[in-house]
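U., I forgot to send this yesterday:
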Amino acid sequence: MKNSKKTLQRALGISFLVLIVIFQSCKKSFLNVNPAGNQAASQFWKTESDATKAVSAMYANLHEWTNIAFASIAVESMGSDDVNKGSTAADAAFMNDFHNFTANSGEGQISDFWGGEYKTINFANQILDNVPAISMDANLKARYLAEAKFVRAWAYFRLVRAFGDVPLRLHVPKAASEYNIPRTPKAQVWAAIETDLTDAASVLPQSYSAADIGRITKGAALALHAKVAMYQKKWSDVLSLTNQVMTLGYTLFPDYEQMFRTNHKNNSESIFEIQCALVPNNPDASNSQYSQVQGVDGSTGGGWGFNVPSASLVASYEPNDPRKDATIIFRGETTPEGDVIPTSGNSTMYNQKSYVPFSLYVSGFNEGCQQNKIAIRYADVLLMNAEANNELGNSAAALIPLEQVRARARGTNNAILPKVTTTDQATLRLAIWNERHIELAMEFDRYFDVIRQGRAQALFGPRGWTAGKNEVWPLPQNEIDLSAGTLVQNPNY
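Result:
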């Protein structure tokens, strides 16, 4: 298979290597970082500059291979009914094991996803363990710690919904006994996530100056907390948290298709966006492959053509819904940016939300490396608010945020998308779920949404999804082996 993956140091979930990669901050922005080699821990954690470098490294890690490319596609997207593997039949055929629910504990993408999230947690834990002792500006220190708590919560959110019970590490291990720890019940992991997000939201600013746009905000902490509460069906909390986010000034970006383009990064709808950049003269720092692995394959597009939309997704749209053409690149079309997609190729469709216009590709750099990944946006918050209102018996109130999302979808095309008017709880619940499906398609939420809604057997069963097993993925076998049995496999794997 194609593989331009860089050599990565991996923080194992069991051995949990004490690793930090230091980055020099570019003068223009904390987001543009250049590798500066490794700095000995004994010489680090001394100054405010050290704290800044560590936080920049934590952000840069969010867009590395195991966090944003194949492992994420396999674990968070490939089980969905919205996607197919893509590329040629033989290329990365292991992705089909995730689509057909035959992936086992030895699958490399399982191991990569697990290791990538614990590596992220390690970055955050090193900041949380070491920055408090640094003599530096108190407000900046508090903000850095809050940013690290959010990142740790984000990684654990991804882990717990993928695996259920996982080892909970809130500090860098020091004693030998702290390395090999058992799985923590998921209820305790959810509670730790919520504590981190509550702490983060109490400190983080609502917005930043231009140089720091893209950093984690109060709104991001509240919105992720709402999502965490939604997975636990804590509807009163979901309602309270989304109501708070809805007072912070976010608005739906008027053009659904353009919201995802690189010239509209960090727009009015974006709440948490993983920052990716093309750093001039530095391909190694420009290492995001989120767009590349999903891009139009062949000589024209330059992408790898994985994680492509399915015929099932196409059939799910209401007639004339403009979000279909804004979400899916079809063979033979000309994109709004003027790229002509050839009529022949390995796949008939591609993910338009990860698309970067071909004119922005730069020789020597990963195709589309400048494309950010929007992880949480305001439409998601509105739909969580609608779902919470409906579950709490406030069906009339649920219609208001639901209509906001549908009204934006109509847009300037005057698409005929009728208002949802039912106040019957069961009927409205399905309408909200359908809206989440369409609005957030190809954004790595559909698979876990269907599971939490209790519909996986009906929707995924024909492909092999089995209740009592496939609610979670298997733990990596190499981690179980390294633990000498301390880690116990999920049932029926």
